[in-house]
Amino acid sequence: MRQPENSAVTPPVDPFSALAADTSARVLRNEWVNAEYKLIVLDAPGLAASAEAGQFFNIECPVVGEDKPFFRRPMSTYAADAETGQVEFLYKVAGAGTRGLATLLDGQTVRILGPLGVGFTLPEHVRSIVIMGRGVGLATLAPLAEMAHRRGVAVTAVMSARGPEQVLSVDRFEATGAAVEIVLDSDGTSDLANVEAILRRLHAQGRADGFYTCGSNRLMLLMKRLAGELGIYGEVAMEQQMACGLGMCFCCVRNFDVDGETVSKRVCWDGPVFPLAEATSW
Amino acid sequence: MVDLSVDLGRGLILANPVMPASGTFAEGLARVIDLNGIGALVTKTITEELRGGNLTPRVAEVSNGMLNSIGIPSKGITYFLEHTLPFYRQFTAPLIVSISAPTVDAFARAAARLNVPGIAGIEANISCPNIEEDGKAFAMRPGTTEQAVSAMREVTDLPLWAKLTPNTGDIAAVARAAEKAGADAVVVANTILAMSIDIETMRPTLGNVMGGLSGPAFKPIALRMTYQCARAVNIPVIGCGGIATANDAVEYLLAGAAAVQVGTATFTRPNAMNEVIAGLTEYCRRKGFNRVTDLQAALNAEMLIPDVMEAAQ
User: Fold this and answer.
1) Mean pLDDT, residues B145-173 taken together
2) Helical packing angle, B219-232 and B246-254, nearest 10°
3) Where does the record place the Dihydroorotate dehydrogenase catalytic domain (chain B) (predicted)?
């Protein structure tokens, strides 16, 4: 940290140690994985690569043509490996920020601020969890399956999508030994009643003492209701528009139900992973 | 060696002239940068009462800037003193606490509660609605500015800064009123009222419809106001508005600012303040200034014929 030469302040007793870094990451790959999503693999050694499941980064997307994103874009970690120093993001090319990100070529650099926020936890009593997600929410949940695998916790992944083309990262889940159940809009299996039946069956089989979800309001509400009814521990990863990602601007607030009281919390600072029991509809 | 220190009055001397703008800084930045390198720390505005804040979306991006309508969510001064202030006491950079209130009396009550160790000064955010005056911001007019600042001056010996709003027709007159009422400095300026509309949804982009514009798009306006205020008062002017680089900060110092606040830039570049500090040293060295305060009188004024100067008043 650069100090002004004449600085009148005494240096802090303890040397400053950062918990997050604004890393200039080098693009190793930036490839389409289907018609809408791209996977970017970055060389980002140091703090960035120490990101845990559920933590996110605030990414400086390049200005390209008419797309001039002013804010950074928050993105959940798809993979982070402290040994290789690599960090990956799976993103849907949808707006000014992600269109810019999609143009990055191998060898170019991009600033990523992170790791940020509070990630997933696996309480001691949890032995077998259900991870249920939809769309890009599945990217957020993939590192959780790997964390569970390392901790010896069994995983069933219920993956919801419009059609077979939109089911992302099945291989990531299967590589951890997770049992995968795919439900689709195209064949009607993603219908809430059917998903509820699947969750009840998993619970009856002793395969659901933890519920984890991301990416769908109606799936979150279903899991929250069943978790309450069946006494299952649960967590949800939330999304919200952000500016700073560091809890400073107070724009990314959502309402939570904490012991019957409505409490406003910052998704970037108090989350993005929250207790399922506190979550409210978004 | 360049002397970056600045004297902002009433015994408050900063190691360098760079600090965060209120509302763009909180404890989270300490996770990324060393706060002890910053000239001063300025809190998000706190109020006596609990406030929930506005509906989302609370921010929107525009060309080279952003709109915000956060709504000053606040857990109250008691919470701040008990839970937030101890965090800031671990840093050597002086802490300036931003306060706001809906009435003159409430401003005085809030200011009186801040005479505690660990607080180096008060920034009065008088850009908020005055409920005794039809919701008009105190700093929109000299009279209400003088009332609010006088009431605070009577109850505190701490350095007292008035943060002015750009949403006024004559900001120099408002700055003079703050000076007359005993302010030790004026901060120029808060965000300027603005709006944007999403043409696909045909809705305003902010939940609150209108909000404040900040960022580089706002810089030339706030710079002009800083210049006007610096010519109008003898107390320090702290420039604020769209400063993202050392070059931006140099412009403000040349316009007459004694110090600067970096706000929106920290949202997109968390190390922006340190980059500005480093760049100021480089600029002073390159231009042969031994003290950063020398910039205040260095504006090349040859072109300032009387008519232009009058128009700027």
Assistant:
1) 97
2) 30
3) 11-282
pLDDT score, position A28: 98
Place of tokens 């709504």: B71
| B274 in contact with chain A, both atoms CB, cutoff 8 A | yes
Residue pair A85/A120 in contact by the 8 Å Cβ criterion: no
* pLDDT tens-digit series, residues A187-236: 999 999 999 999 999 999 999 999 999 999 999 999 999 999 999 999 99
| Whole-angstrom distance, CA of residue B124 vs CA of residue B99 | 5
- CA B165 from centre of chain: 10
Is residue B24 within 8 Å of residue B4, measured between CB atoms?
A: no
Tokens 């180096």, located at residue: B120
ipTM, 2 decimals? 0.93
Whether chain B has a CB inside 8 Å of the CB on A66: the answer is no
Domain boundaries defined on chain B: 6-54+69-196+214-312
CATH no., domain B6-54+69-196+214-312: 3.20.20.70
Cross-chain Cβ contact A253/B73 below 8 Å: yes
Q: For chain B, give me the number of helices (H) and strands (E)? A: 10, 17
Runs of H (alpha helix) within chain A? 96-102, 137-150, 170-175, 192-204, 217-230
B128 is known as an active-site residue: yes
Domains and CATH numbers, chain A: 21-116 (2.40.30.10), 128-238 (3.40.50.80)
Three-class DSSP category at A76: strand
| Burial class, A103, CB count within 10 angstroms (exposed 0-12 / middle 13-18 / buried 19+) | middle
**Number of Cβ within a 10 Å radius of residue A24:** 12
pLDDT surpasses 80 at A133: yes
**Residue A4 pLDDT class (50, 70, 90 cuts):** very low
A263 touches chain B (CB under 8 A): no
**How far is the C-alpha of B19 from the C-alpha of B24, rounded, in Å?**
11
pLDDT of residue A250: 96
Nearest CA in chain A to B69: A251
